């Protein structure tokens, strides 16, 4: 379901021997809600985040529940500027200055 599916619904059927032939059910109200984001988890490749100088590091972020569209931003401790967007952050050739604590934000 999507948010735009909220509304009032009923069913209608035809009974050929009845007058009038169309019969309708009672109205039912359906309200679709957003599910808040929860269960955000992060994993890293290589495992443990131990990567050799100039090797590749991939960080991945996942959400257990939440309705979209989801927005991902990547940050390193001590800096507010986002490093990237999307569920994955890839650092191709890590250097000494790439060491630190990383996290993703999901909204």
From TrEMBL:
InterPro entries in UniProt: Ig-like_dom, Ig-like_dom_sf, Ig-like_fold
Domain of life according to the entry: Eukaryota
Domain Ig-like: 36-107
Protein known as: FCRL2 protein
């Amino acid at each position: 379901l999507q948010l735009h599916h909220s509304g009032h619904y009923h069913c209608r059927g035809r009974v050929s021997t009845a007058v009038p032939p169309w019969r309708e059910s009672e109205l039912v109200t359906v309200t679709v809600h957003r599910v808040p984001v929860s269960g955000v988890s992060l994993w890293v490749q290589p495992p443990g985040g131990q990567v050799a100088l100039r090797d590749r590091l991939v960080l991945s972020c996942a959400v257990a529940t939440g309705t979209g569209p989801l927005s991902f931003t990547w940050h390193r401790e001590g800096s507010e500027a986002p490093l990237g967007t999307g569920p994955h952050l890839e650092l191709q050739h890590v250097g000494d200055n790439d060491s630190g604590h990383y996290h993703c934000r999901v909204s």
